[in-house]
Each structure stands twice: as C-alpha cells, then as structure tokens.
C-alpha cells in the first residue's frame, strides 16, 4: 500500500520544508516506507517550490487563474495529486478554498494546519484577531479537512504566549516555530495510525 505524501503549498512552504526535513532526519522512508512524493502549488512563484526541487521532490504548478471555475481547478488538482498515489494529502499554507467534491474525494487522508487554537479564529488574519481579542495564548492546530473551512477533527495543537506589545507579525513567527514541530509529528502519526 502506498505511503506517499503529497504536499500542497501556495507560498513560503516552511511547513512543507519542516515535513521534508523531519522525514529525512527520522528516516521515514527506511523505517516506515513513507516518502514525500510531490509538492504541488497553485502559484508559480511559491518560494517553497525551489526547496522541494533541491530535495529531488517532484513539483508541479497548477495556476488556478487558468481554470474556468473552482470545480475545474479542483478536478485538475485532484488528478495531479492522484498521479502520485497518495496515502495522505497535506495542505501547508495552501491558500485556496476547496470544493466539497475535492474534500470528499480525499476524505480521511487530507490534513491542514491552521495558525490558531481551533475552534477559535477560523479564516484569515488569525494573529491580529487573537491580539485584538486580548488572548493571553495563541497557537496552531493540525486537523482533518472537512467541507467546512478550518473545521474538522483536531489531531494536534501547540500553544504559545501572546506577549505584551506583540504585533501580528511577531506572534505569527512565534506560532510558526510550533507549526514546524507539530505538523511533521501529526503527519507521521496519522500515516502510522492508518496503515
Ligand atoms: C502557516 O502559518 C499556516 O498555518 C498558514 O499559512 C502559513 C503558511 O506558511 N495556513 P508556510 O508556507 O508553511 O511557510
């Protein structure tokens, strides 16, 4: 059975890189037969693509702007993913809302990381909203993806303090360091649980 991971990114790809590094450092391939098979992006300029290529990982860009509808893009994306026979599809800063048909197709093997302590602060601008709400703590959540945005069974979380005078940028950077800890861990745990 396949233990391939396909990772979807739109930008910097630091979570993707954290997963790739963890896989290498912990020898996921040798110990568990797990490998990152491909990194796909909806943006040609996603900085993370260069890292993935350097690691010898297959990459592909599907520019959502060149498709006539969200459904058409998601159908093409699904085909590109399936070509890599994935056991798990990992959203890592993939900034597209997915159609219910896409989510249904990968149900149970589609993970996301969100930069808040879900169920608080779904959607965008999470760090500023946490600061504005006077939160003392913020964090990140790995969850299974369902048709509802940023909602689904929670697999892992990490907490960071919100410090006096924090900017959204400072808080985002603090949260991101924890994303890089919990996402590789949650990906491995999910694959080992479902093998
Ligand atoms: C992360 O904060 C992630 O939680 C959010 O977008 C950011 C992506 O960062 N969805 P990167 O592309 O993994 O560096």
Please explain how this structure is put together.
39% of the residues lie in helices and 23% in strands. With 195 residues, it is α/β, with parallel strands linked by helices. It is globular and about 45 Å long. The protein has seven helices and seven strands, in the order E-H-H-E-H-E-H-E-H-E-H-E-E-H. The chain has a seven-stranded mixed beta sheet with strand order 3-2-1-4-5-6-7, with helices on both faces. The structure holds 5-O-phosphono-beta-D-ribofuranosylamine. Residues 9, 11-15, 92-93, 113-115, 176, 179 line the site of 5-O-phosphono-beta-D-ribofuranosylamine.
Topology:
Blueprint: E1 4-9, H1 14-25, H2 28-32, E2 35-41, H3 48-54, E3 58-61, H4 70-82, E4 86-91, H5 100-105, E5 110-114, H6 126-132, E6 137-144, E7 154-161, H7 168-193
Helix pairs in contact: 1-7, 6-7
Bound molecules: 5-O-phosphono-beta-D-ribofuranosylamine.
Side-by-side strand order of the widest sheet = 3-2-1-4-5-6-7
Q: What is the typical, i.e. mean, pLDDT?
A: 97
Radius of gyration from CA coordinates:
16 Å
The biggest sheet, with number of strands, parallel, antiparallel or mixed sense and barrel status, is: 7 strands, mixed
- The secondary structure category is alpha/beta
Number of strands: 7
| Helical percentage | 25-40%
The low-pLDDT segments are none
Bound molecules: 5-O-phosphono-beta-D-ribofuranosylamine
Short structural summary:
39% of the residues lie in helices and 23% in strands.
Keywords for this structure?
alpha/beta; 7-stranded mixed β-sheet; binds 5-O-phosphono-beta-D-ribofuranosylamine
